[in-house]
From TrEMBL:
Name of the protein described by the UniProt record: ATPase
RapZ C-terminal domain boundaries: 11-123
TM annotation in the entry: none
Cross-referenced PANTHER family: RNASE ADAPTER PROTEIN RAPZ
Source organism, top-level taxon: Bacteria
Amino acid sequence: MPPAPAPILAQVEITSFGYLHGTPPTAHITVDLRHHYRDPHVRPELRHLTAHDQTVRDTVLGTAGIPALLDSLTATIAAYAAGPRTGPITIAVGCAGGRHRAATVAAELAHRIPGATLIHRDLHQSVVER
């Protein structure tokens, strides 16, 4: 098992967003969850819920690969923070609508990084009917 990452002593801003609601925000790291992780939107009982709902969070965090992705992102942010440059580190996490996968992953990532700022750009948007 790899060693735990060093504490992150940098300003970190994490933004969740939906690609269907506009251009991704500018970021040092952009994570696109659309093609590799199943969309809770396809389940009618989850479609109109958001990452504020425990069922959505449980579904996303229980998706194969998501826990490893979160561990990897946490370590990547720590590596950026350990670099010689100072200044904020920006992370953008996107999915189709920004209400399920991106918002859940961004919130969990922010939870893992003390002092991180979390912005949900599109969580309040209406469900995109596809």
